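User: My collaborator sent over this chain with a note saying "see what the structure looks like." That's all I know about it. Can you take a look?
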Amino acid sequence: MQPMLRTLLEHTHPWLAHGVEAAQHYAKMRLPSTYLAREIAPEFAAAVSANDRAHLVIGPRQAGKSTLIWSFLADTPGHILYLNCEEPLIREWCRSPGLFSADLEEWLPPGGTLYLEEAQWLEDAGLFLKGLVDLRLQRRIIVSGSSSFHLMSRTRESLAGRATRHQIWPFSLREITHPQKTIAAAQRKQAREAMERQLLFGGYPAAWKAENPIPILQELVTAVVLRDASDRFRLDRPDAFRGLLQLAAGQIGDLVNYSEWGRILGIATSTVADYAALLEETHILRFVRPFAGGKRAELTQSPKVYYVDTGLRNAVRGGFSALDDRNDTGHLLENWVFGELHKRWPEPGQVRFWRTRGGAEIDFVLESASGHSIGIEVKSSQNAELSRSTRSFIDAYAPRHVLLVTRGERRREAVDDTIVDWVPAELLPHALDLVQ
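Assistant: Without extra context I'll predict from the sequence alone. Here is the result:
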C-alpha cells in the first residue's frame, strides 16, 4: 500500500483505533442536526442485511444519499471503512478487486461495512464491484452514486444478481409532512403550505431546511449541474448545455423537438440528444414518453420534458417570485405533480402522457398494479371542470380512476364506469394511495 494512501486512511478514519462504538459515534456525527426519515429507509435497511451483494443507492447529488447511509450505519453495530471515490488516491486503489481485497484485511474486519461514496468516479465501477462481490469478502458493501451513466448503464450486466438498487430523490411531500395514510383537517393547512413552498423551492434537503434556499439552489445549478458536466463529462459546448437547461425550464410539460432546440442552440440534433441523455442520467431532467394504447390517432414519438425538482428548475430560470405573481404557476404545478409521481414510479415508462393528433391530451397516465389505466390531469385553477380532452380519454380507455389535481376543494363524480376525483394538490399523496 502506498504511504500516502495509508496516511489518507489514517487521517479520515480516526475511529479505527477506538473500536466499533467509535465508528457508530462518528456515523451519528455525520447526520444533520434535524434528520427527516426517508420513506425508502426501511426497505434499504432490510436489503442491506445481506452481505453477498453490493447495495447501490442512486440519485441526484445532495438528495440525501449519504444521510440515508450514515443514518443506517449509526444504528448498525460493526466497523466502517468509508472511501470517497472523488479522491484520486482512492480511485487508484480501487482499480483491482484482488489487490484491494488483500489490503482490506488490514483495514476492515469481517462483518464490517465498506462504504464507497460517489462511486461513479471510479474508472470502471461495475467491474470493480462485481469483483468484490465475487470474492465473497464477508463484509457489507454499500455504494452511492449520483450518475446512473457510470453506476448503472455500464454495470447492468456485470452486476446482474450481485446488487440491489435503491433510488433516492429530493423530499416528497409525504416525507416533509410525515407519512400517514390519512390526513386530518388540522394538518391540511400545513400540507398546503409545504406543497406551495415545494413549487418554488423544490425538495432538495439543504434547500428545504434553509431559511433562504435561493443561494443554495443557485449553487446547486453551478456546482452540481454545470461544473460536473463540464469537468467530469468534458462537454465541447458547456454554453449550449446551459442553454438546453434554460430551454427545458421554459418548456416544462411541452412536447420536445430536438431539431428545434438544436437550431436555437446552434448545435447538431445528435448533440442535443446526447446532452438530454446526460441530463437524464444525472437526474436533472426526465423525458416522459407518450402512452399509446393502439389508437391510430395517438402520438407515439415526441416526449414531454420535466425537471425532477421544481426548485432546480426555478433556479435555472431565475424565478422565485410568489405563486400569485407568476404566469407559470400552472406549469409549475404540473411539474410538481410529475415529481411526486416520479418519486413513486421512477422507472422509465411508468409515468406517461396521452395526446392525440387532434390535440386531445391528458397530462399523465399510470398503470395500476391491477393493470388498469389511471389518468391524471393538472389544473391550477380552484374551480376546474372536466375537460373535453379528459372525457375523450375516458371514452377511449374507460379507466377505473381519473384524478383532477387542482388548487381547489375535493369532490367526486362518476362518468360511466370511471370515478373522477377532484384532488387538492396537497392531498395528492393520499389520493395516490387509494388508486395504485
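A starting point for your reply to your collaborator: Residues 412 and 421 are 5 Å apart (CA to CA).
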